[in-house]
Amino acid sequence: RKEVEQDPGPFNVPEGATVAFNCTYSNSASQSFFWYRQDCRKEPKLLMSVYSSGNEDGRFTAQLNRASQYISLLIRDSKLSDSATYLCVVNLGNSGNTPLVFGKGTRLSVIA
Amino acid sequence: NAGVTQTPKFRILKIGQSMTLQCTQDMNHNYMYWYRQDPGMGLKLIYYSVGAGITDKGEVPNGYNVSRSTTEDFPLRLELAAPSQTSVYFCASSPLMGSAGELFFGEGSRLTVL
């Protein structure tokens, strides 16, 4: 299994649609998980952390499934401005003091 | 609010030339990182630093060197540039490591080696 693996997409969805991305990770002892957003030719920016109990921020919901070693990101009521690449980021070490590892990203295009 | 500042934003190098990518942050973060991102790929860690005077290799360190003489600055040196080093380079900093630290990125430096 690759360390952090994502479906590259692209996901082309109409405005208002619900879309979900999954990301798998290799180390069952991983402790920390994040979703970053990267706009075209821009730097990545933190979208949200992923907590064990799942968490929601407006239209965005992140969930963690430790048994199957994946995290997910759900976007409801998609907006044109949601078009971007979504990067799954995992701390693959067994402690908190190891650098984060990035997936290749999933590209989302929201179409009017 | 400068955050993380990288220079230059764009550079074209000839094979075999050397150059330094500059990175400075004004957030007093201990942790700093250099990533490279090839087209359609995720970010790969080149080097990182947990504080002034301390650096460590990441996933793809070959062909690069770093130093961390101050908390603020973390320059990346490319020696003997090769076409395989054509990429977008991102410097980042964080207040904490790994598990809890959000990464703050610079705007990137686009390097082409011809």
Percent strand of chain A equals over 45%
Count of strand segments of chain A: 11
The largest inter-chain interface, given as chain pair and residues per side, is: A-B, 26 and 22 residues
Oligomer: heterodimer
β-strand number of chain B: 11
Helix content of chain A: under 10%
Protein model, in words:
The complex is a heterodimer of chains A (112) and B (114). Chain A has strands at residues 4-6, 11-14, 19-25, 32-38, 45-50, 55-57, 60-65, 70-75, 84-91, 100-102, 106-111. With 112 residues, chain A is an all-beta fold. In chain A, strands 2, 4, 5, 9, 10 and 11 form a six-stranded mixed sheet that branches. Chain A is globular, with a radius of gyration of 14 Å. With 114 residues, chain B is mostly beta strands. Chain B has strands spanning 4-7, 10-13, 19-25, 31-37, 43-51, 54-57, 64-66, 76-78, 87-94, 104-105, 109-113. In chain B, strand 4 (31-37) and strand 5 form a beta hairpin. The radius of gyration of chain B is 13 Å and the shape is globular.
Short description:
The complex is a heterodimer of chains A (112) and B (114). Chain A has 112 residues and is mainly β.
SSE diagram, text form:
The complex is a heterodimer of chains A (112) and B (114).
Chain A: E1 4-6, E2 11-14, E3 19-25, E4 32-38, E5 45-50, E6 55-57, E7 60-65, E8 70-75, E9 84-91, E10 100-102, E11 106-111
Parallel strand pairs in A: 2-11
Antiparallel strand pairs in A: 1-3, 3-8, 4-5, 4-9, 6-7, 7-8, 9-10, 9-11
Chain B: E1 4-7, E2 10-13, E3 19-25, E4 31-37, E5 43-51, E6 54-57, E7 64-66, E8 76-78, E9 87-94, E10 104-105, E11 109-113
Parallel strand pairs in B: 2-11
Antiparallel strand pairs in B: 1-3, 3-8, 4-5, 4-9, 5-6, 7-8, 9-10, 9-11
